[in-house]
Structures are given as C-alpha cells and as structure tokens.
Amino acid sequence: MLESQRGRLLEAMAEVVAERGLRCASKAEVAKRAGVSREAFARNFDDLDDCFVALLDWMLARGATAITGAFKREACWDDAVLAGLEALLTFLD
Q1: Gap between the Cα atoms of 10 and 78, Å rounded
Q2: Whole-structure pTM over 0.90, yes or no?
Q3: How crowded is residue 69: how many other Cβ atoms within 10 Å of its Cβ?
Q4: How far, CA to CA in Å, does 61 sit from each of 4, 25, 50, 84?
Q5: Cα–Cα–Cα angle for 10, 12, 14, nearest 5°?
Q6: Per-residue model confidence as pLDDT tens digits over 12-68
Q7: What is the pLDDT of residue 3?
Q8: Element (H, E) at 56
Q9: Measured between alpha carbons, how far is 37 from 30 in angstroms, rounded to an integer?
Q10: How far, rounded to the nearest angstrom, does the alpha carbon of residue 75 sit from its chain's CA centroid?
Q11: What's the CA gap between 24 and 17, in Å, rounded?
Q12: How many Cα atoms within 13 Å fall on the side-chain side of residue 35?
C-alpha cells in the first residue's frame, strides 16, 4: 500500500509542478491530488523538496532505462547513439 501511495504522490507532484510550478506547490495540494491524507504524505516524504527530489530520481531512472534499452537494441554504435538520443527526446516530450 505504501508504494502505491508513494507512486500516486509522485504522479500528483509532477502534475502540480507542471501546472503551477514548484514554488506554488503545497503538500496539501499534492496529497489531495493523489487522493491520500497529509499524514500519508508525511509517511512517504519529509517535505515538499524531498518529494520533488524523489520525483526527479524516478524520472531520471525511467529516462535512463529508455535510453539504455534503445541503445542496446542496435548493433551498430552510431545507430545505437541515435536510438538513445531519440529515446531521450521522446521521453522528454
């Protein structure tokens, strides 16, 4: 259950930051958007900055996985680099 809450909080944090910016985000808004209590937020993250750093870590890991997978699918190094860049740009989009 905790991992499920954490995932919903990270998704909510991404939505709030995309819509309002980090400076206008609040723990209460992120918790509400995630459908969890403020206490659940506090069990998962120390503060809003901790939640944002966790979101960045999660996103970077997902991006790295996409890039690595695309790179490894190609036999030629040049094609692998291009595939990795394409995966990165697709991920960022």
Answers
A1: 35
A2: no
A3: 12
A4: 18, 23, 16, 14
A5: 70
A6: 999 999 999 999 999 999 999 999 999 999 999 999 999 999 999 999 999 999 999
A7: 65
A8: helix 48-72
A9: 10
A10: 30
A11: 8
A12: 7
